[in-house]
Amino acid sequence: MNETPPKRDGRKENASNTQAALQLAALEWFSAYGYEKASVGSICADANVTAGALYHHYGDKKGLFAAVVEQVDARLVQQAGAAQVAVLERGGLPWQAFLALIDTVLQAGANAPLRRLMLVEAPAVLGMKVWGEIRQRQGLVAMQASIQALQAQGIFVGHEAPRLARIVLGALYGAMDSLPHDETQAVAALDDARRCVQAMLEGLRQSV
To answer: Distance from the CA of 133 to the CA of which of 36, 71, 77, 118 falls in 20 to 30 A?
Structure first.
């Protein structure tokens, strides 16, 4: 007996496609020109949707900005997690996998427009409370899980995972914020930031 395939919900598909187009266009505009200079009209034109669609799905430009910031943070978490898993699948040690996660986050910080979006504009536009909630849902939860996995392997056992996750994530944001806008200096600065963060982590690894 043949099973009847589930019916496709065209409205949900259209809504998802509209949101994806808006967020992609908005990311390009926010990254290139900043929140204030990115107009609703320009974003909607690039996304090939009406302004009404933006207001329907996100309420206003700030709502769209919040969705973009959350998407960017979630994507970075996914990329960092994938780097961690890749090391483990190659037979690497948990500590090496954790450092791969850290390095992936730092590498993302070398992107100056993205760094400005996440570290400067996000807290300014959304406020520290909303920005903090996004960090809590994305990066902080993932960092705490990674630290707890290391603690199960006997690493970082002398520290409270929630507190250490905030400290490590804060150090990463600080390292990214220290990187120059001048691309000619970015490679050397990123290497120095990486050494600083890894030295801090090694110290925490050894302390109890």
So the answer is: 36
Cα gap 83→79, rounded to integer Å: 6
Confidence of residue 111 (pLDDT cuts 50, 70, 90): confident
- Six-digit token string for 84: 């961690």
Fold exhibited by the domain 62-206: Tetracycline Repressor; domain 2 (1.10.357)
- Cα-based distances in Å from 180 to 10, 32, 111, 122, 164: 46, 17, 10, 19, 27
Decide: 85 and 100 in contact? Cβ < 8 Å: no
Fold of the 1-59 domain: Arc Repressor Mutant, subunit A (1.10.10)
Model pLDDT for residues 140-173, shown as the tens digit of each residue: 999 999 999 999 999 999 899 999 999 999 999 9
pTM of the model: 0.85
Count of all residues that appear for the chain in the document: 208
